[in-house]
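Researcher: We plan to redesign the surface later, but first we want a full-length starting point. Tokens attached.
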């Protein structure tokens, strides 16, 4: 990612790339030379290459523990991409990050994030979870809750810009808001989740100073009344706020079009629709002439196999941040212009399909939910998932209403199938 920042923004930013492994540091330096970038501290004629058009971008490459580096100096943007979990670096990252800075966290410990090793999940994230149909969003909210607690310990709050779960990693990008007021607001969005183990209905527990006698009353389903024993479990603590910032995503789309990043644009468009909880629509970015130049990536040389760097381009859409706004203005704007948050979690249309019924196509089903007056969108967490503010009972009722029994479909094609069977019997029955 550091090479991409230097490639697109050149001398507008000062990039520092750090790794504690000597072999990785040498590979970083070699990649800098392949992309015609100068490594700080090396001689200009070390590679014997001449400048063609623009002066080289200077990149600082360091070899030390990331916690030590983040304690030594302050940064405006920090991207953490360790092997496995990033919880060991969060305290150091939030200690010296500047106000209105951005912290990007990549977690690749999918075994603990996706409920495969629950003991490691409890150890790293202090969170109790189970395997659910919405396990990817559950992992994203668990990481954000851990990030929010680490920021609060450093007297800082966070504003979530985006959270995605793709392939083998979970990426969370937050903006840092310094001050005790913001530090107090962020932990208020960390709540427990009650999850029904029969129908997989879920709801965040309401805040209150009194202990509620029956927590099942908060669930919209009636599984506790019809099923014996304990039917629900309490999960968390999890982040209960929004996972996306629409303004940030639209700026990402603007910058992606400007820099010709065609690979990332479909994902950003789907995230914008998910943040607004609307169906996919056409996006137009005014004032941009589409550039034909191949400028979306940088040359990367790896040791054994080619690494896919397109996922790291998602956090390049911020561009050059405007630092002239103070923290007070940001707080006032947040209180006055509070967008409508998207519904938490999603339902899988295949998980709740009715046996013996042919359910409608997913896009048609989204249209039916919209006509019923519900907010609805698809989600990048699950290709068959539907994010909506409808309850599971309402979701199933609409799905049942527009599903067609399987036997009717067989009856409609009964004559054609019968004739085909007769032909086959004639062909194979009379040798």
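Model: Full-length starting sequence:
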């Amino acid at each position: 990612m550091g090479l991409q920042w230097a490639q697109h923004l050149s001398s507008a930013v000062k990039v520092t790339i750090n790794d504690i492994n000597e072999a990785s540091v040498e590979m970083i330096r070699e990649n800098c030379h392949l992309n015609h970038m100068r490594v700080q501290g090396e001689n200009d004629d070390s590679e014997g290459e001449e400048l063609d058009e623009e002066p080289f971008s200077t990149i600082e490459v360091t070899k030390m523990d990331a916690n030590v580096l983040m304690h030594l100096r302050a940064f405006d943007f920090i991207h953490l991409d360790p092997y496995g979990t990033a919880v060991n670096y969060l305290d150091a990252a939030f200690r010296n990050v500047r106000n209105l800075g951005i912290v990007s966290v990549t977690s690749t410990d999918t075994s603990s994030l996706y409920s495969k090793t629950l003991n490691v999940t409890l150890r790293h994230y202090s969170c109790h979870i189970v395997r659910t149909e919405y396990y990817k969003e559950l992992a994203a909210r668990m990481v954000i809750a851990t990030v929010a607690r680490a920021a609060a310990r450093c007297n800082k709050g966070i504003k979530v810009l985006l959270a995605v779960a793709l392939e083998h990693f979970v990426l969370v990008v937050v903006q840092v808001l310094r001050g005790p007021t913001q530090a107090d607001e962020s932990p208020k969005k960390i709540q427990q989740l009650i999850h029904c183990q029969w129908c997989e209905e879920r709801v965040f527990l309401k805040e209150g100073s009194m202990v509620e006698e029956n927590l099942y009353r908060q669930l919209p389903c009636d599984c506790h009344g019809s099923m014996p024993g304990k039917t629900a479990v309490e999960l968390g603590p999890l982040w209960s706020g929004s996972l996306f910032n629409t303004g940030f995503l639209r700026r990402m789309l603007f910058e992606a079009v400007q820099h010709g990043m065609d690979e990332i644009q479909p994902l950003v468009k789907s995230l914008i629709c998910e943040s607004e909880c609307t169906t996919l629509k056409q996006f137009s970015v005014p004032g941009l002439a589409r550039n034909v130049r191949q400028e979306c990536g940088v040359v990367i040389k790896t040791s054994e196999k080619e690494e896919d760097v397109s996922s790291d381009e998602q956090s390049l859409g911020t561009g050059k941040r405007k630092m002239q706004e103070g923290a007070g203005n940001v707080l006032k704007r947040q209180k006055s212009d509070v967008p409508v948050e998207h519904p938490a979690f999603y339902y899988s249309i295949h998980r709740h399909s009715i046996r013996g019924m042919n359910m409608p196509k997913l896009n048609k089903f989204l249209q039916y939910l919209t006509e019923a007056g519900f907010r609805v969108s698809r989600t990048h967490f699950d290709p068959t998932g539907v994010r909506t503010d409808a309850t599971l009972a309402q979701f199933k009722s609409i799905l049942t209403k527009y599903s067609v029994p399987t036997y009717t479909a067989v009856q409609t094609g009964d004559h054609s199938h019968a004739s085909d069977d007769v032909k086959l019997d004639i062909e194979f029955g009379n040798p």
